[in-house]
Amino acid sequence: MTIRILFFPFTHIRENQLRIVLTFFPSFEYFPMNGDFDIHPNLHKAFGQGKITPFFLSYDKVVAVEQNLEQYLAWARIHKGNEVNLKSLLKDTPYFTNDSDVTAIKSQIKGGKGGKGPDVALPGESTLQQDLLFLKMAQLYDEQNEGIDLALNDLSTSHDTLISTLRGLEYPSSEAENSKAEDSKDVDSKDGGGIMIQQRIRAWSRSMAAMGGLKQDGDMPLFITASDAVFDYLESNCKDVVNALDIDNIKVHENECENKNEWQHQFCDYLVRAIQGDGILENNLPEVNDSCFLSGQIKLCIFSGNDINRLFNCSNKQISVCLIKLK
Asked: What is the CA angle 214-139-52, rounded to 5?
């Protein structure tokens, strides 16, 4: 039986997360909420190498989501400084729909608090449209936060270089080097997954199901994440949990190692046996017997029952989720 590797529940994958996933797995499936990877060179490269199987939105859906997002942002700009009214409307009507444009909302706000929000009950694809809009907003949030983290890291590096130059040092001091290493480690360890986890998972799973991305076709789905927050949420909110694997320190291959592909395929086979409950042992893990020094962490849990089925919008299924990290 083959295994499907599905990165979830984020539609934006940070650079450090991409590196983590491609360290453990030869390829993975991903929902990018875009129509292509033209403005994401690293993703475009991995896609060209067959390392990413994307579920791209159709052109019509991309346009619709972008238009709805722009309406939503325009709405927020109109009511900047009137946060009390905006919060009240957001509570009643959290998303834009086809029958609610900026003009209508603006008129409603000017009319006072007593007015009711626009009708959100639309036929057809209204639920999918709202899920996609939510995921797009979450993606924008994640992208902006990663950009801030990287900018702060660059600023810290520039500061250390300036201090070294002022000191008259040809090379950065050991203190500056240590600071740079810590800053880089902080950026790599950023989670970014602690906001609205339940809503992210539900919107992601419903959207993927609508696009045919959750059809099993005989393959074993494995949901993977590099987010402690996502994994902790599932463990805390699902009663029926089997801890199939928990390894705090596993040696993995560096990016350019010639032994990496073979190890990854062995690792995937190992995970299949763990999910099937074949009584595997930790010492049966594929080993790294070369000069690679990189280490990682892995935790695999199998969730079942009504809690997880409601969350993933499915019925009578076990959900296998794997947390992966680099050290």
From this structure: 50
Q: What is the DSSP letter of 324?
A: E
Per-residue tokens: 279: 């009584």
Question: Do 299 and 246 contact (CB within 8 A), yes or no?
Answer: yes
What six digits make up the tokens of 163?
Answer: 């201090």
Question: Which helix (DSSP H) or strand (DSSP E) does residue 306 occupy?
Answer: helix 306-311
Give the Cα separation of 42 and 48 in Å (integer).
10
- Is a pLDDT exceeding 90 seen at residue 216? no
* Cβ–Cβ < 8 Å for 220, 4: yes
The end-to-end CA distance of the chain, in Å, is 30
**Using alpha carbons only, what angle is made at residue 32 by residues 31 and 33, rounded to the nearest 5 degrees?**
100
Q: Is the pLDDT of residue 327 over 60?
A: yes
Amino acid at 201: I
Q: How far apart are CA 130 and CA 104, in angstroms?
A: 19
What are 319's strand-pairing partners? 303
Q: In this structure, are residues 217 and 2 in contact, taking their beta carbons and an 8 Å threshold?
A: no
Q: Is the pLDDT of residue 42 over 90?
A: yes
Q: How far is Cα 8 from Cα 251, in angstroms, rounded to an integer?
A: 24
H/E element, 307: helix 306-311
Rg (Cα) of the chain, in Å, rounded? 23
Going by the DSSP 8-state scheme, the letter that residue 118 receives in this structure is P
Per residue in 126-182, pLDDT (tens digit) is: 788 889 999 999 999 899 888 887 777 766 565 566 566 666 655 555 554 444 444
Structure tokens at 68: 């709805």
